[in-house]
From TrEMBL:
Species whose genome carries this gene: Colocasia esculenta (Wild taro)
Enzyme class per UniProt: transferase
Protein name according to UniProt: non-specific serine/threonine protein kinase
PROSITE patterns: PROTEIN_KINASE_ATP, PROTEIN_KINASE_DOM, PROTEIN_KINASE_ST
InterPro entries for this protein: Kinase-like_dom_sf (IPR011009), Prot_kinase_dom (IPR000719), Protein_kinase_ATP_BS (IPR017441), Ser-Thr/Tyr_kinase_cat_dom (IPR001245), Ser/Thr_kinase_AS (IPR008271)
Length: 463
């Protein structure tokens, strides 16, 4: 649509009037009606007597303000984002450096990636001795000839950086013959490795799985024949494990809750001394309040391994020392029966408890154990089931567990420390019924525990 304007009462518009008309259209100051509009200025042409009038084109003040606001806002946003990213990077770098300095002060040896590769023949398959949810375990020989186990995390492993740092912090301060010893660690080139003393006899689960398919766990040592454990050896392992956990509960300062006690986390050295391992999920016990009161639990997200989890902890999220007692009780039941905690929908605690109450307990005992004193077995079963009570207060303390096991161990016939030695039996000894299968019908793949953790550094008094 073309619109022509003519002045009233005179022949032509002056320059001021022309500019006013032009500004009216370019500034969108045009009234709309219900019938016509909206309007948009396509061209402003001066004809006739106005062809010689020069009208300078300029942008409206409104557009300049909007453009300036956009530019200023973009600059401010860029500066803010740059500052935030810089602060984040600096904090991460400071935390990382502080952590490495602290670990060095604590006396933990930091290995280079090259040293780890050299110790394991560049992580060859022949050096691999195990694999689990965390990653792979390699047997390595350090430059000084020390034989070690190198636990190398894989990308996307169940244990993350918090678990990695926690295990280093705890193990560097814990010293007990029934706890695995940390030699050092490697944390470079996006690699996380923990270096432990090498335990040639593998895990307790390896020995309980003799004749069965082996469990898949991060400490499993492959390619080595296992002999069944006698009752005396099983009690020795139970007692050693209990003593290691008792140290965590009572002699560490502050005390520590392991939170992932299971057969695949109990290692056996050449003399079959039990060593508790894998502190990736451990938590520090609560400290005393201002009035000197020590809380009885730590409220935390539930972590652990199915089959070993304390049911009260699972429901209330309250972690206590009795949580470890429950898990160790499940290990005792494994020692007695050879079963896995959960298999084919069956729970070892319920199965053993039902057999115990019906007087059929000896039908559950592992047939590969050999002959055993019946009174000793009955008391061991009773202790295991007390540890596995649903109510926390109904379970014994770890100190009481150690005392009972010490008494039971004295009841067993005198034998050597290796399981291959024959065990002499007393007049009370019972030979398992021949109808019992030598193999174990229970089998399940071990489920590794997984992340959380207290970032605090415990002050541990070495034993």
């Amino acid at each position: 649509m073309y619109v022509k304007f003519f002045p009233a009462n005179k022949s032509t518009f002056n320059v001021s009037e022309i500019l006013q008309i032009r500004d009216m259209f370019t500034g969108w100051n045009i009234r709309d009606s219900d019938i016509f509009g909206p309007y948009e200025l396509l061209n402003f042409t001066l004809l006739g007597p106005y062809t010689d009038v020069i009208v300078e084109r300029h942008k409206s003040g409104v557009n300049k303000g909007v453009l300036a606001g956009i530019i200023v806002g973009a600059v401010a946003l860029s500066v803010t984002l740059t500052a935030l990213i810089s602060v984040f990077i600096m904090r991460k770098w400071y935390t990382y450096q502080t952590s490495k300095i602290r670990l060095k002060i604590d006396g933990v040896k930091c290995f280079t990636f090259g040293e780890m590769a050299s110790a394991t023949n560049n992580f060859s398959n022949s050096s691999q001795v195990g694999q689990g949810g965390y990653g792979k375990v390699y047997k390595g020989i350090l430059a000084d000839g020390t034989v070690v186990a190198i636990k190398r995390a894989q990308e996307g492993s169940l244990q993350g950086s918090k678990e990695f740092c926690t295990e280093i912090e705890l193990l560097s301060r814990l010293h007990h013959r029934n706890l695995v010893s940390l030699v050092g660690y490697c944390d470079e080139e996006d690699e996380q490795m923990l270096v432990y003393e090498f335990i040639p006899n593998g895990t307790l689960r390896d020995h309980l799985s003799v004749g069965n398919s082996s469990s898949n766990n991060s400490w499993h040592v492959t390619g080595k024949a296992r002999e069944p454990l006698s009752l005396s050896m099983r009690l020795r392992v139970a007692l050693g494990s209990a003593r290691g956990i008792l140290y965590l509960h009572t002699e560490a300062d502050p005390p520590i809750f392991h939170r992932d006690i299971k057969a695949s986390n109990i290692l056996l050295d050449p003399k079959f001394v039990a060593k508790v391992a894998d502190f990736g999920l451990s938590r520090l016990a609560p400290l005393s309040d201002a009035d000197g009161t020590i809380p009885g639990h730590v409220s935390t997200v539930v972590k652990g391994t199915p089959g070993y989890l304390d049911p009260e902890y699972f429901l209330t999220h309250k972690l206590t020392d009795r949580t470890d007692v429950y898990s160790l009780g499940v290990v005792f039941l494994e020692l007695l029966t050879g079963m896995h905690p959960i298999s084919h929908g069956k729970n070892i605690v319920r199965e053993v408890n039902a057999a115990y109450e019906s007087g059929m307990m000896f039908s559950m005992i592992d047939g590969r154990m050999g002959a055993y004193p019946s009174e000793c077995i009955e008391k061991f079963v009773a202790l295991a089931l007390r540890c596995c009570q649903d109510e926390t207060d109904a379970r014994p303390s770890m100190a009481e567990v150690v005392r009972v096991l010490e008494n039971l161990f004295r009841m067993t016939p005198e034998v050597d420390t290796t399981p291959s030695e024959s065990m002499s039996t007393s007049s009370q000894s019972v030979t398992p019924p021949s109808s019992l299968p030598s193999g174990n019908p229970y089998f399940s793949t071990d489920v590794s525990g997984s992340d959380l953790l207290s970032g605090a550094s415990p002050n541990i008094t070495p034993r």
